[in-house]
Write a structure and sequence with these properties.
Chain A: It comes from Microcebus berthae (Berthe's mouse lemur). The complex is a heterodimer. Chain A is mostly helical. Chain A is built from 18 helices and 2 strands. Chain A has a two-stranded antiparallel ribbon. Chain B folds into 2 domains: 512 residues, no CATH class; 69 residues, no CATH class. Classes of the chains: A mainly alpha, B mainly alpha. At the A-B interface, helix 7, helix 12, helix 14, helix 16 and helix 17 of A face strand 1, helix 5, helix 6 and helix 25 of B.
Amino acid sequence: MLKIIIPTIMLFPVIWYSNSTLIWINMTSYSLMINLMTLPLLNQAGNNSNNFSLTFFSDSLSSPLLMLTVWLLPLMIMASQHHLMKESLTRKKLYLSMLISLQMFLIMTFSATELILFYILFEATLIPTLIIITRWGNQTERLNAGLYFLFYTLIGSLPLLVALIYVQISLGSLNYLVMNIWFQDMSSSWSSNLLWLACIMAFMVKMPLYGLHLWLPKAHVEAPIAGSMVLAAVLLKLGGYGMLRLTIILNPTTKIMAYPFIMLCLWGMIMTSSICLRQTDLKSLIAYSSVSHMALVIVAILMQTPWSFMGATALMIAHGLTSSMLFCLANSNYERIHSRTMLLARGLQAFLPLMATWWLLASLTNLALPPFINLIGELFVIMASFSWSNVTITMTGLNMLITALYSLYMLTMTQRGKFTYHIHNIKPSYTRENTLMSMHMLPLIMLTLNPKIIMGLTY
Amino acid sequence: MNLYTSFMLTTLIILFLPLVTNILYVHKNKSYASYVKLSIVYAFITSIIPTTLFIFSGQEMIISNWHWMIMQTLKLTLSFKLDYFSILFIPVALFVTWSIMEFSMWYMHADPSINQFFKYLLMFLITMLILVTANNLFQLFIGWEGVGIMSFLLIGWWYGRTDANTAALQAILYNRIGDIGFILTMAWFLMYSNTWEFQQLFMLDNNLNMLPLIGLLVAATGKSAQFGLHPWLPSAMEGPTPVSALLHSSTMVVAGIFLLIRFHPLMENNNNIQTLMLCLGAITTLFTAICALTQNDIKKIVAFSTSSQLGLMMVTMGINQPYLAFLHICNHAFFKAMLFMCSGSIIHSLNDEQDIRKMGGLFKAMPFTSSSLIIGSLALTGMPFLTGFYSKDLIIESTSTSNTNAWALLITLIATSLTAVYSTRIIFYVLLGQPRFISMSIINENNPLLINPIKRLAIGSIFAGFFLSFNILPTNIPQMTMPTYLKLMAMAVTLLGFVLAMELNTMTNNLKLKTPSSMFKFSNMLGFFPTTMHRPIPLLNLYMGQNMASSLLDLTWLEKTMPKITSKTQMTLSTTISNQKGLIKLYFMSFIASALMMFLLIS
């Protein structure tokens, strides 16, 4: 693991010692090289995990997420270039350092063996994200958004600390690998229900669960492009990852406690999708669509079946790439139109045909067109929830319908229709942007060819 | 030993080639459009060989190659089912598409992105072929969704027009409602049969629960535009005419019926689902035929006639005759594609005029198109020994001799009669009488790119039915004996329709206008379906999204109850507890008072 973490740390000197002309190219190429080093992790031979040391390990659940994290850094760097053009050199370097430290924390979070280490790093990711949002956001509302982001996640996760200490005392260890063997069924008492809530709520807020999601649209809308990308692609998945890890020690209580949450998610995903139908703000639409997709993941994890776990893992990866791509596209619009309002960016297909293709592909993956991995994820979750209760098909089916509608509504709004006159003199799309989009799209297509590497533990 | 597999795969590969080679730019000196057309011709020719072999030997086959995933107990592979349906459908689809491609080279020649258009058309065809040849539900779903998305792109081809975009979204909306049914079926089969492979599904218990079958029916309703989910089909006329021709003949709309035909082994013993299909089909065929009666847009009339024919196919499924329904799909493809091409030719010649009241007398100006239009219309009505006759007549016969729901049968008969009425109406208004169009329009139909495809399909519309039913082995025993009045029933109602329509149409020239009757309004307003079902429900949902989900819950309740109330309580608490109240005057006053006091004490 150190061979990934140390190069990531060494990215700091790379930026701070690069001169101003080489800063982007150095960073991008170096971070892409780190990617190469994570590739072997995907080869998970057998059911055993790769234990690198006592503190770090990776298995088939964490390695796709690790891969996603590492893959996203060069993409974020590429996406932020235009946004940072007018900043001074030191600030650029500072911004990049924030991204790197975030990546470092995330890598360690996903590969930690100890729950306490996981917890500390989980909290540590808040700091660079908060700085990115509140320092480089575009409007004054960014402060409010940062406040919401920080307090929602902190309030959710403090009980987890207490719960972890309790588990440490009662089990004697917080090591995932050992917990699998040592854990005992929770007793059916009120206190174990409370323990369950304490353990799960931190991740529910992070995912976010409907009702606790208010921080997400705000943070997404106000964050700069890299912030939105990493929030949607990786930070939300921390919640799913944590839930998948922790539910193994929370048996049989999950069976009872899951009901209200599953209900809330099924309800919330329809609510958030219908909010999407009425959004005028492009970034807010994408953010709400994340909430609705993540609701499916929560449902899947709470159902506790092998199929649903596979679906949840696949959906997390698929959604990570898709939503990040959508944010990039929204940003490329924003850089040209200087507004997030969809009405102001109509008929772009006539001007930027290649970008329209990317929009089309991103919308299609967002609405889960077969055979993309998005569909595999959604389909498995729907199958699992159908076998849990037949009635859920009405909710999940309705959500499928609305998802398709708002994805295509977004596409039609921005790309189709008559163009407005103020966009006559927009810039053509850069090679940088097209590369960025194709680097989102290629992994999606390639994973579609062989989805088993992102199916997680139960495959 | 035969060469099915290799020839079938060759066909598919030939079709895929233009998609790939476009990047390599191998078609240097030829236009991409003619390159695509050529590859479809080649694909057609290669696909003829396995079809001939199939007719000769009757052997069915499955190609299964490339494991995609194995999850727990479910194996997903790429597999093609080459059975009666797919082997016969592929050449028909390719033949019709060949003509449509050639026609679109003429129709779209001025479009700057004609290459993209051809690529979309080709992808549309390929997704349909994936759907037809799929051997498991997942692969079928790939084709199913692919067809939907391609139709979205093609209907919204002229993306500058709001109507086109709305129509495209509408198509997706109704199709997605159907997809819920499809997903339901997939989930059910996964749960109870633990497989998505067709053989395994059909081998298991045939007395199924109703749920997956209803799911299939919903899926077919969405895709094949049956009553309830039909409004997208006439709206889809916003797309270019070649798209309508392709959409209505061999791709997309027949996919729903095809799905039901595929799953026929599960439905043949289930009377409830058959009754449902019969009633749904009968309602669709009558309702859309009524809607077609008073439309003035030539493409809309043809579109509604497709919908009506799809209803007829559904009726056929309802009387347990999937092979007849399939034959009707094949026959229907020929004359429906040709009808659209003829109307496209007319519309193009009259400077994009689609209103049949502004046509007339084209019999003289466009003799070839007119005769093809008449052939197509007659084939559609089931005139003896034209293509439509071979399936339609059989369908009506087996319907009227079967002892199922008499009302559904009666409704179907009325709809058959109405087919003749609206066909006559097209012929009467477009071809006969005096010209009513602007005299400046330059009418020219002498373009080989226009004439040849129509000619090919016209020949198809006359002979295809004969060839198909002559060569294909009868798979179930057709109804041979029946009373004379039943045998002549189909003929009689059609002729009745013709006579009625001629009378009515000539009357329109003689009678003066009066306020339209309520029956006319019902037909002209599409049965008030758009005003009662089509708009209010989405509007309600959008209002719900805005008022309940967004304003009430998200912006008010969730915002106020959690973050706002927390900060509010904290504020109030801290202000109450703290001794700093911000009362500057008072503080200063007390300071002065104490200072004064001090002063007094000291002095």
